[in-house]
Amino acid sequence: MKVDLTGALNSMLQKTIKEYRAADECGDTRSARTKALECAGLLEQIAQSSPGQREIYMKRAQEWRAIAGQVEAKGSSKVVESAGTGENEFLTYAESLIATTPVRWGDIGGLENVKRLMMETIVIAGLNKPDSIKPWKGILLFGPPGTGKTLLAAAAAGSLNATFFDVKADRVLSKYFGESSKMVSGLYAAARVHSPSIVFVDEFDALSQSRGGDTSEATRKLLSTLLTELDGLQDKKSGQLLLTLAATNTPWDLDPAVLSRFPRRIYVTLPDPEACCEILKIHTKDLDCSSLDLGALGARCVENLYSGRDIQNLCQQAIWHMIREENTNLHHLAELPFDELKERSLKVRGLRAADFEDAFEKIRSPITRSDLERYDEWMEKFGE
Ligand SMILES: Nc1ncnc2c1ncn2[C@@H]1O[C@H](COP(=O)(O)OP(=O)(O)OP(=O)(O)O)[C@@H](O)[C@H]1O
Ligand SMILES: [Mg+2]
């Protein structure tokens, strides 16, 4: 039987880090060095039992070995800032924001230009190049809800095998109220350690929209640290990929200081007819759609101002309609024990136009034409 020891090892690691800090603080160089080496050893063990994140843990282990080396060389305390007092808590929290994403470029229908631009940005960051050529540090994705902004960020990280930090601004603020700017520094320290990294700040407007008005002190601090980190990134070690992607539905709420850090602003639009077809295909992937006129369905999606999310919902409704029609007494089976249910199969057939008729009735886009005009206007003034 395989036993998962990672949890136990992690608690030992936390304990050892604390002991290291205590030794470091009272200048006990010898113990600090021993504890740093123990941390490295534990991280190596964790790496062995976490195949998906092996490299990340090995990198951290190396860092701890370096810390041990520095303690020995200098014989003094506070050698490495990030391992010193308090900072580790933020580093550890930042590491808890690392998400693995199965999303790939192929899961996104349409948005060809956007995908290409993001791929180029990432490739440029990685390639050897003259010093004067700097990759973009920040990309702003804006557009109506449900158009694929989060999906794009996830695909960028997933396809690149980059470490993906999934940050919801509000959540960080509420967890580390008052210390959120330290949190942001911790986040970028972790992102540098785990490079190539993509820091994805979703619902970015929540942070900066109130900047001019009655902003809370905590929000202001968080934002200004974030901006400082974005400014500083290039100067630190080059050859690292550390890309900050920010997403918003309301770009007009961002103030100039924020905007200036995101020179690349990409409009993630509602899908055109062709993209609608692709999205329809993605969300009906393993069902027979040969009797459907996808072109006509796509055109209707455009007419209805559907986003990718609306199309996904549309497909789900259509599939549900088909299931109901094929399995009339489905609810009767609820009385059967679960094990018995597993023996039976749901009846399915190919999707038909009639399944979608019903679905089109039910799905209403939350977007209006005047909303779209507002995006277009902003795009013209401030966009790419
Ligand atoms: N271009 C697309 N191709 C395939 N699926 C899409 C596409 N756009 C959206 N979807 C579907 O809609 C869901 C929502 O998309 P996503 O979360 O990326 O939108 P968003 O732009 O981040 O929205 P919000 O602004 O509300 O955060 C996705 O999980 C996906 O299933
Ligand atoms: Mg989103």
Structure write-up:
The protein contains 17 helices and six strands. It is globular and about 75 Å long. Strands 1-3-4-5-2-6 form a six-stranded mixed β-sheet, sandwiched between helices. It has three domains: 6-84; 105-267, Rossmann fold; 273-366, Helicase, Ruva Protein, domain 3, CATH 1.10.8. The relative contact order is 0.10. With 384 residues, it is of the alpha/beta class. Adenosine-5'-triphosphate is lined by residues 108-111, 145-151, 247, 249, 279, 282, 308-309, 312. Magnesium ion binds at residues 149-150, 202, 247.
Largest sheet: 6 strands, mixed
Can you tell me the number of structural domains? 3
Order of helices and strands: HHHHEHEHEHHEHHEHEHHHHHH
Shape: globular
Question: In CATH terms, what is the fold-level topology of the largest domain?
Answer: Rossmann fold
Helix content: 55-70%
Radius of gyration: 25 Å
Features:
384 residues; alpha/beta; Rossmann fold; Helicase, Ruva Protein, domain 3; six-stranded mixed beta sheet; 17 helices; 6 strands; 55% helix; globular; binds adenosine-5'-triphosphate; binds magnesium ion
